[in-house]
Design a protein that fits this description.
With about 55 residues, this protein is α+β, with helices and mostly antiparallel strands. The protein has two helices and two strands; from the N terminus they run H-E-E-H. The protein has one domain.
């Protein structure tokens, strides 16, 4: 919008941002780890931002 409150195009989520950071560090963002109770989850819920990584 005109005051910068919402993205005009290509919105990204916090998960996309963390996936991009992991990708740039050479870590697969879809890596699965387990919590203390043995439940699996991915280290990032988003996808790398293609505009950032080229």
């Amino acid at each position: 919008d005109k005051i910068g409150g919402f993205p005009g195009d290509r919105p990204v989520s916090p998960g996309d941002l963390t996936a991009t950071i992991y990708h740039c560090l050479g870590i697969d963002p879809r890596t699965e780890i387990h919590d203390q109770n043995g439940r699996p989850f991915f280290i990032s819920s988003g996808n790398p931002i293609a505009d950032v990584i080229g």
